[in-house]
Amino acid sequence: MIFLWYHHYMRNNDETKQNQMISIAEDVLRAAKDRIVANMRFMDSAIFALREKCDANREGVFGTDGATLYYSPDYVISMGRDGISEMTYAYMHLLLHCMFRHYKNPPENRQLWDIAADMAAEALIQSFEMDSFRHCREEEQREALTQVRRETEGLSAERIYRWLASGNRKLEEVHQLGDLFRVDDHGLWYPENSNFLKPEDVQDSEESKDENPTELLRETDVPDWDRIAQMVKISLETENRGAERGELLTALNARTEKHMDYSTFLRKFTLFRENLKVDDSAFDYIFYTYGLELYGDMPLVEPLEYADERTISDFVIVIDTSASTQGKLVERFVQRTFDLLQESREIKNRFNIHLIQCDAAVQEDRILRTREDVHRYLENMELKGLGGTDYRPAFHYINNLVERGEFRHLQGVLYFTDGKGIFPRRKPSYDTAFIFEDDAAASEAKVPSWGMKVVFGGKDEY
């Protein structure tokens, strides 16, 4: 009897302690969110978007899947032990992951993407220059970001990822950066391989004990982070709170600016035209019914002579081979372009594609007329140039090709570039699209009004 009483007492005591920890953690989270809202009113739409679920059965839990913040009381309490700034910083860090959708469709190398996303979030937080986000690793992180800023065009997660993936960093250095910038657990970004959290392991807070945690995890009402990012951007623009918000506004402009999808755009370079061939899918109903009336059971069927087919005519691909354009990325662009065309059956057996390499001068013009030409080119592709960027020589060269009658109907030019060069002043007689590796590069490029911006990348394209 004494043993049973003691066991019951200890169990109740443990439950009381756990409930107290949950209550304290909820207070710390609430204080952190209140502090963000008090200092950054433009974050209102983001700060209340995430649901919160307590996991009191594990230690060190703090992460999101874009819909819900999962946390353990010990983590939250430890972050708030020396003041609320550390927890405020951690919550803002996680919110930035959501606003910039770092959790969505990460690239193949997940270790590098985790580090890049954490570094990008930290760079934005440091740009605020606010005491509310002070934390113990700030100065060391600032030094690391200063080095990255010297070697990259910007501190978006995508650019940092490419910097890490360039192969110029030692493995030990990469691991050190991961440890230095890690704040939250990214396990839920990769649910198929994650043991980070299971529905049966979730313990609800007092507010939602009657709800089924398994069902909550299956909910599909993920916040519309695209709309939230747009709302934050608009609030930032109207508040005009000063330079300390400038980096966030620039990042949100790149995040929210809509660029045409590359695969969709490519189909605009196809042309409907009549081909002299029998169209088996159509016939003249007049002859059909006349035959039935005249012969009783013998319809007259005359197929239409012409059929409309969507086919590739002539077009030009220009590769910017300046020193700032990466070779592997160029190869993926060329490969992806022809894969898209062939998958959609828009390249026929013979075609007329000029693939031009140009930096500050035209370095090569390879004419591709058959699929075999394409395969041979891709197998032996070699970039030439690696100087500065000037778009005018390529357009001058293409104009000469048009004048010489090299094209039956030039549908347009695809110009793969980083956007940093001298553009022609006059609009050419053909459509031109400047293809960029990601949204950030497209947003920064000063493309003339007659040029279209198209984004080739996507995290799976890096």
From TrEMBL:
<dbReference type="InterPro" id="IPR036465">
    <property type="entry name" value="vWFA_dom_sf"/>
</dbReference>
<protein>
    <recommendedName>
        <fullName>Metallopeptidase</fullName>
    </recommendedName>
</protein>
<dbReference type="Pfam" id="PF09967">
    <property type="entry name" value="DUF2201"/>
</dbReference>
<feature type="domain" description="Putative metallopeptidase">
    <location>
        <begin position="29"/>
        <end position="268"/>
    </location>
</feature>
<dbReference type="InterPro" id="IPR018698">
    <property type="entry name" value="VWA-like_dom"/>
</dbReference>
<dbReference type="Pfam" id="PF13203">
    <property type="entry name" value="DUF2201_N"/>
</dbReference>
<feature type="region of interest" description="Disordered">
    <location>
        <begin position="196"/>
        <end position="215"/>
    </location>
</feature>
<feature type="domain" description="VWA-like">
    <location>
        <begin position="316"/>
        <end position="452"/>
    </location>
</feature>
<dbReference type="InterPro" id="IPR025154">
    <property type="entry name" value="Put_metallopeptidase_dom"/>
</dbReference>
